[in-house]
Amino acid sequence: MTVPGPETGDGAFDFEAVFQAHYPRLARILARVTGDPSRAEELAVDALWKLYRSPEAQGASAGGWLYRTALRLGLNELRGRARRTRHESLSDRGAASPDPEQERAAAEERRQVRDVLAALEQRHAALLVLRSDGLSYEELASALELNPASVGTFLSRAQQAFRKEYVKRYGPQP
Amino acid sequence: MDPNHSPWVEQRMAALDPPAAFQPDSAAAMTRFRRLQAVHRRTARIWLGVAAAAACLAAIILWPRLLPPANPNPRITPATVAAYRATGSARAPILAEIYSDYECSYCAALYQETVPHLVADYVATGKMRLLHRDLPLPQHPYSRAAARYADAAGLAGYYEAAVEQLFRTQAQWSADGDIESRLARVLPSAAMNKIRDTLHDPSELDASIGADIQMALSDDVRMTPTLVVTANGHRRTIAPVPPYPLLKSYLDDLLRANCREDPGAARC
Predict the structure, then answer these.
(1) In a domain, B102, yes or no
(2) Residue A65 resides in a domain
(3) A162 is a domain residue
(4) Nearest-CA distance A11 → chain B (Å)
(5) Which residue of B lies nearest to A103 if distances are taken between CA atoms?
(6) Given this model, what pLDDT does residue B226 score?
(7) Which of A23, A40, A159 is nearest residue B5 as measured by Cβ atoms?
(8) CA angle at B241 for the pair B85 and B219, rounded to the nearest 5°
(9) Distance CA B197, CA B9 (A)
(10) For residue A87, what pLDDT band results from cuts at 50, 70 and 90?
(11) A156 lies in which domain range?
(12) Is A2 touching B (CB cutoff 8 A)?
């Protein structure tokens, strides 16, 4: 993962630099998880606030800590929401579509994907979300504290678990 | 590992791509972050205040219980002292006697920080009579001489001014023993002449100091400063002297108890 060094030359932790470097991507990843851009921005700030309040996490691996924390917040939110509601948020709208039926189908698919993510083991869900945001194997290893050589295996297991859960819930899909 | 899962899963995950128009607003996020910081700082201050208030309250509640029991045979009328060493009404419900040593830094702090409050809140309002008692400790080479100077100044009519100056310049004269020059800076030369005359024969002053020392032994005073409070038929030795808010709480309790015994008193 391209994590700008959080430590300045004199060894002091430059929180502002970490904030500016990570906030946009954190918000986008959380928007992917929650489907609610406004809520995603709030959660991204919450994750940064946790980093600010955790001196032990402020070091060379602050970036990975931050992504793990943000994903935990996002997936917890998703699970809580999955328990409370069974309908798609009005704010979760993909690209505007002229066809209402296409839009409804897309919204339904997003809901299904999120429900499956909420049901998965947190590490599997986090792997899939970060991978879908374009993180390389090396970046995934750094963010989720995995052995770089094992990322492929973990990712494959996560995909397998995702498909199994999806099929269990919604039947075989093409 | 089943390689066929990958495109299928990626296709589904792609459904979660946020709207293209979504641009996270870093400036707004930083504002929200700063607000969190401010709330956190405010909350921390509130909790600190609550903790301090709770500690004070606990101290106020518990402190009187930690006091030694009142003397079962109280000597309500302690040995008299020269008039210049007493302030306040002789009919005040509380008699407070301070045993001090002029070379003791804690005594200086008491006189500079607590005694002015006692005078303003209790002596000036007729609730307390305050007596100064000398207890020169043997380890302080100049404290007896300082007590003599203070008493001689009292006979010349300048006791308060001398005591104040002795405590203010304590660090200087306790280093070189030159008490007189420090007093001469604040007392009129006529008063200084009287003081010198008195000090030619200090036997009377030493008798007064000796009476205080005997009184201290009888009050079981073991340190300076020590406050001995006589009120409501009891005499209590308080050492070390607590901070003023705590002391005030104790004195107010004594006054309330006094009012219960004598509800007709004007101050009640």
Answers:
(1) yes
(2) yes
(3) yes
(4) 23
(5) B15
(6) 93
(7) A159
(8) 65
(9) 107
(10) very low
(11) 15-170
(12) no
Bond prior to B3 in cis (omega within 30° of 0) = no
- Give the pLDDT score at A40: 93
**Out of A31, A37, A128, closest to residue B13 by CB:** A128
Give A98's pLDDT tier (boundaries 50, 70, 90): low
A49, A94, A156: residue with CB nearest B5: A156
Q: A4 to chain B nearest CA, in Å?
A: 16
Q: What residue type is assigned to position B260 of the chain?
A: R
pLDDT at A57: 84
- Residue B6, chain A, CB below 8 Å: the answer is yes
Can you read off the two tokens belonging to residue B199? 């000090």
Q: Say yes or no: B19 contacts chain A, CB-CB below 8 A.
A: yes
CA separation for the pair A173, B99 (Å, rounded)? 94
Closest residue by Cα to residue A120 from A64, A87, A168:
A168
For A108-165, the pLDDT digits (tens) are 889 999 999 999 999 899 999 999 988 899 889 988 888 989 999 999 999 999 999 9
Domain housing B196: 83-261
E-assigned strands of chain B? 86-87, 94-100, 128-134, 226-231, 234-238
Q: Collect all residues of chain B within an 8 Å Cβ-Cβ radius of residue A24.
A: 23-24, 26
Which comes out higher in pLDDT, residue B216 or B267? B216
Question: Does A114 reach chain B within 8 Å, measured CB to CB?
Answer: yes
> Can you give the pLDDT at residue A152?
92
- pLDDT value of residue B68: 56
Q: How many domains does chain B have?
A: 1
**How many domains does chain A contain in total?**
1
Do A6 and A24 meet the contact criterion of CB atoms below 8 Å apart?
no
Q: What is the mean pLDDT of residues A69-75?
A: 93
- ipTM of the complex in this document: 0.77
Predicted confidence band of residue B78 (pLDDT cuts 50, 70, 90): low
Q: How confident is the model at residue B66 (pLDDT cuts 50, 70, 90)?
A: low
| Domain assignment of residue B5, yes or no | no
Q: Does A162 touch chain B (CB under 8 A)?
A: yes
Residue A1 falls inside a structural domain: no
Q: How many Cα atoms within 13 Å fall on the side-chain side of residue A30?
A: 32
Residue B112 resides in a domain: yes
Output the domain CATH number for residue A146.
Answer: 1.20.140
Instruction: Give the integer Cα–Cα distance in Å for B150 and B164.
Output: 10
Which of B1, B8, B13 is most worth mutating to test chain A (most A CB atoms within 10 A of its CB)? B13
Tens digit of each residue's pLDDT (9 = 90 or more) over B41-65: 889 888 888 888 887 777 666 665 5
